[in-house]
Inverse folding.
């Protein structure tokens, strides 16, 4: 597999890129890395107040219920939005230097994963201090993260390369992600939906990932491994397809940008 | 001599054309509304049937008037753009200097940019650590190396960029018309370094308008005219003929 060797050879570039993205995100802001925590916390506060009043029905652990979904969801949306912009944003180097272009979406998805792992501290703090507690199922966290990573890699390859040719995609993605927020059981429970809507929401891969995160952090039960394995398989297929699309489209990057 | 093993760059029947759009529909909306718009375009053939074998250890100059396709050919060799027809094969690690400080981050210090730039060329952390002192020494920027690059003059910029590229230890070095920046002293130093690399058996391709440096450094010159190879051979002969025609 040529691609793995190429990326291995350019691992330093990948590392520098990931570091640059993590460090650069909050550069020149007074609170710096604190925003990694403040951002989701403030968002969480808003959602808990609004949806808590609407949907929770007096459940005191509702903020934790949202929190466990909101943080992986934030990883999902930021990775896709940034991936859509990464090739265009790096137009300068792409036009002047050769390097494996795949590095760009890969580093977006990877830096997002690093951020996500850091933000998971919030989830841990919440479940420990609220009395929900921890369970051994938490050991499955890396596995669920891996599935999300591969899924995002596939989407990342596609959106980063297609946006170069259709700039609208950047905006279309924003709308789709906004709709998908409500198409994923983040603020509500799947069972609260009418049957037909449940079926649609279950077609969304993020539904199952968020269910799995909730199983290990909130319900302390074994996630549905059959669904997770199917999801992993599908994500790998998507990544392979995405990679071929990317490979084909990247030949025109320097001319299109 | 075994010919096939000694080829560093093989350019085989390469065609390259660019689409020149008068009014480009960039977004989906425009594409749907004004679908006729993209038809108003012109195809400009920049390279027509280029064949070139560059042997390992050769130092080749690409010469020709503006718009003859020299830089396009160099970009094709770098794999930044790809030919419409034909193939280009390169053997060994390749470094290119197409533009001053491509991939420099203005807010990073010179030192950080050495790391960043070298990593774009595919070096690992360890390899960069080993070269760091050599690069800084060659650039003569010891006093400024921890300042942000945006504070550099264009000469300093170029010195840093050149020092990185030349210390990557690539087998093939592609350089596009950049040696004109920098003072006499640094230019001399660069020429010496390139002569050294030549002795080490590196392959180099230059695009330049400075006939002195061509004669000074290259064993072979390729004259491109209107996207085709007009003359290819011994430097002195090609340069003399080129000067006779264009003067």
């Amino acid at each position: 597999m040529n691609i793995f060797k190429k990326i291995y050879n350019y691992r330093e570039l990948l590392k520098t890129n990931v570091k640059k993205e993590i460090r650069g995100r909050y550069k020149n802001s007074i609170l710096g890395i604190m925003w990694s925590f403040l951002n989701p916390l403030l968002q969480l506060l808003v959602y808990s107040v609004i949806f808590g009043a609407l949907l929770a029905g007096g459940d005191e652990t509702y903020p934790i219920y949202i929190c466990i979904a909101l943080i992986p969801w934030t990883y999902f949306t930021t990775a896709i939005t940034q991936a859509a912009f990464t090739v265009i944003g790096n137009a300068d180097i792409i036009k002047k230097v050769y390097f494996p272009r795949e590095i760009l979406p890969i580093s977006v998805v990877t830096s997002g994963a690093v951020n996500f792992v850091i933000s998971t501290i919030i989830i841990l703090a919440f479940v420990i201090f609220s009395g929900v507690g921890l369970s051994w199922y938490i050991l499955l966290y890396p596995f669920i993260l891996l599935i999300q990573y591969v899924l995002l890699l596939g989407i990342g390859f596609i959106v980063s390369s297609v946006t170069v040719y259709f700039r609208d995609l950047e905006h279309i993605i924003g709308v789709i992600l906004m709709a998908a927020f409500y198409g994923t059981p983040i603020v509500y429970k799947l069972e609260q939906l009418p049957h037909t809507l449940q079926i649609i929401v279950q077609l969304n891969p993020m539904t199952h990932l968020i269910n799995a995160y909730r199983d290990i952090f909130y319900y302390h039960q074994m996630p549905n491994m059959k669904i997770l394995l199917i999801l992993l398989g599908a994500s790998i297929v998507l990544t392979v397809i995405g990679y071929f699309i990317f490979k084909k489209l990247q030949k025109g990057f320097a001319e299109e940008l | 001599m075994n010919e096939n093993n000694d080829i560093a760059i093989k350019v085989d029947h390469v065609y390259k054309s660019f689409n020149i759009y008068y009014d480009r529909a960039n977004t989906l909306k425009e594409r749907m509304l004004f679908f006729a718009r993209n038809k108003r375009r012109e195809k400009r053939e920049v390279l027509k049937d280029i064949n070139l074998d560059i042997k390992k250890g050769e130092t080749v100059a690409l010469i020709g008037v503006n718009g003859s396709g020299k830089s396009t050919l160099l970009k094709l060799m770098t794999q930044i753009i790809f030919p419409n027809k034909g193939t280009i094969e390169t053997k060994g690690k390749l470094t290119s200097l197409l533009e001053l400080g491509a991939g420099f981050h203005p807010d990073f210090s010179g030192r950080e940019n050495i790391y960043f730039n070298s990593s774009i060329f595919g070096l690992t952390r360890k390899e960069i650590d080993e070269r760091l002192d050599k690069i800084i020494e060659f650039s003569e920027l010891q006093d400024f190396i921890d300042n942000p690059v945006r504070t550099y003059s264009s000469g300093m910029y170029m010195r840093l960029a050149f020092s990185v590229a030349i210390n990557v230890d690539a087998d093939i070095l592609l350089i596009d018309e950049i040696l004109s920046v920098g003072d006499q002293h640094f230019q001399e130093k660069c020429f010496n370094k390139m002569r050294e690399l030549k002795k080490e058996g590196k392959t180099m391709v230059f695009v330049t308008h400075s006939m002195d440096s061509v004669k000074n450094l290259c064993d072979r010159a390729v004259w491109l005219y209107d996207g085709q190879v007009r003359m290819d051979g011994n430097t002195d002969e090609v340069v003399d003929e080129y000067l006779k025609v264009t003067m």
Chain A has twelve helices and no strands.
